[in-house]
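[Automated response] Your request has been received and processed.

Submitted sequence:
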Amino acid sequence: MTTEVPEIDLADPAVLGNPLTAFSAVREESPVVRLTAPGIGPLWAVTRHAEARTMLSDPRLETGDGSYLPFDVPEHCRPYMRTMSVLNGQEHTRLRRLVAPAFTPRKAAAFRPRMERIVGRLLDELPGLAAKSEDGAVDLLEHFARPLPIDVICELVGIPAADRPRWREYGAAVASGHGQALRDAIPAIMEGAAAAVARGVAAPGDDLISDLAQILEEDGDRLSEIELVTMVWQLVLAGQTPTNLIANAVHTLLGHPGQLAALRADPQLMPRAVEELMRWCGPQLLTIPRFTAEDVEIGGVPIPKGQPVTAAIAAVNRDPRVFADPATFDIRREPSGHLAFAHGPHFCVGASLARVQTGVALGALLRRFPGLALAGDTAYTPDPGTLRLARLPVRPGPAA
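Generated structure:
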């Protein structure tokens, strides 16, 4: 059967240069394709919305240690590598139930004023940075989209303000997605998380670490210290998702002046705009692979036991079976269930926070700088797994 399934080479320059088109093209050939890449064994990718949604909630497919590229971390860090993302069943549910209350839509909305203050501080710096440059331009990725998520998640989790410049460096390494900087940052983040947990136990505050530390003190059977430290560093890493989402969103809006004008004219469209931006230019192109616990069939394609399977979000979120005129960017579109945050047990726990953060960031940026414009060529970094810009040069123009 595998010979009848289309195959995509992730190292193909055509795929690296335009993964959205590459994945969408094969969607109409088959609901399942095979992906190959140097150094990575073949894996299956689901390209249609209905099949992907079913796969992501199928208990016969589970995440595990093989879902992630291995990190070479010091021995003392190894106990903290077993995150919620690689757990399944009751073990995963137990930990998720502990952290999920901090990320409900209600909590995200209540956290909005604190996000607005962080956004405001970053925007205050942009005119000065632009004035110092020769052409009046500033890299919005480096000076806004990248530091914002790490500052927000540090505020939520409970990282002291004095430590946040160092965590900004960690966040930049995580957002880069690869390289020595990322490998160095992982153990540093673990050690910083352990120190933050110790502070949360000794001097509780109004933050997630303190809340979880109280559970640790009251009922160690529900949450161990190792699990808490692991949870903290995982949340910090996962909290970097809005970096590329915000950068992609600004790039997309500036490239669609009619849509940008409509959003400026009616800020009440922002929630729909955020949903459409996640569908259109969400950074995650492939979900974390799951492995088949037994022989399964997806979209009529048999997949043997032990095989890695991913959802091609780039194709799924432009499936014409679900989205009318999917190749059109439309901020007035009725939300139709995009899978930018995946689905099922491993649906992104921070989705509500990311939605609010993106809306706050875009709304404040567009209000503050009505003349915001691109200041040079931009291109997405060749990466079949993540839609991300290397830089986003803009001219802010006079502040409102």
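Summary generated for your ticket: The domain at 7-395 is CATH 1.10.630.10 (Cytochrome p450). The longest strand covers residues 40-46.
If you did not submit this request, please reply to this message.
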